[in-house]
Design goal:
- It contains eight helices and seven strands; from the N terminus they run E-H-E-E-E-H-E-H-H-E-E-H-H-H-H.
- The protein is globular.
- With 233 residues, the chain is an alpha/beta fold.
- Helix 2 packs across helix 6.
- It folds into two domains: 165 residues, Ribonuclease H-like superfamily/Ribonuclease H (Nucleotidyltransferase, domain 5), CATH 3.30.420; 40 residues, no CATH class.
- The N terminus and C terminus are likely disordered.
- The strands form two sheets. The protein has a five-stranded mixed sheet with strand order 5-3-2-6-7. The chain has a two-stranded parallel ribbon with strand order 1-4.
């Protein structure tokens, strides 16, 4: 039975639906709890690194789920509540900018993943990860290149993570006028770069990243931790 879906799907997105083929294979092999995970915010200059985790039911579907990067902000928002109510359980784990600085991005991503999976309140039999890098570990993962475009549980996790983080950044925008966080969500863009030069970094900027070295006012000498992001470009 399909749950009511988001408004009309754009023509460009038709035929790009992720499937449950991996999940069905694992269910047939005896795995009961299969978690899709995806991250958002790794390349951002400001705000948290966030990872979504989603466990899907076997007997119900939400239509029009796609990789979050293919959807507009309005489309993601329209799907969010449907996906959240459809999932058996779901969670988003966050790592703060300060933790990103202290730990480095690799360790921060592992911590965000652990927080997301712990937030589910269930023990996964298998975790499906978008991409080549296993940032979950534990011998229970399967890496899927372009998983957010092809695997339904990863696509659902990508939307849950993206919308949750975007909402956090829109809320932060009121505290930091001039940075346009409601628009850029902390990612690099011309207005963000100009605001940094004019006002300096905010309390939600990652201060060990390369972009800080190019702020003429700062004089900051960067000492990145092991695994810190070496460059943004």
């Amino acid at each position: 039975m399909a749950v009511s879906s988001a408004p009309r799907l754009r023509k460009a997105l038709k035929g790009k639906a992720p499937s449950l083929s991996v999940e069905r294979e694992l269910w047939a092999a005896g795995d009961e709890i299969i978690v899709g995970v995806d991250e958002v915010g790794r390349g951002s200059w400001a705000g948290p690194l966030s990872i979504g985790a989603a466990v899907l039911p076997r007997d119900r579907r939400v239509l029009k789920v796609r990789d979050s990067k293919l959807l507009t902000e309005a489309e993601r928002e329209a799907l969010f509540d449907r996906i959240a109510s459809w999932c058996t359980v779901w969670s988003v784990g966050h790592v703060s900018p300060q933790e990103c600085d202290e730990l480095g991005m690799s360790a921060a991503q592992k911590l965000a993943a652990r927080r997301a999976i712990d937030g589910l309140g269930v023990t996964p039999d298998r975790v499906l990860i978008d991409g080549n890098w296993d940032f979950v570990g534990g011998g229970r993962t399967r890496r899927i290149v372009k998983g957010d475009a092809t695997c339904l549980s990863i696509a659902a996790a990508s939307i849950l993570a993206k919308v949750t983080r975007d909402r956090l950044m829109r809320a932060e925008a009121a505290h930091f006028p001039g940075f346009d966080f409601e628009l850029n969500k902390g990612y690099p863009c011309p207005r963000h770069k100009l605001a940094l030069k004019a006002y300096g970094p905010t309390t939600i900027h990652r201060r060990t990243w390369v972009f800080m070295e190019h702020l003429p006012w700062s004089g900051i000498k960067r000492t990145p931790p092991a695994g810190a992001q070496p460059t943004l470009f």
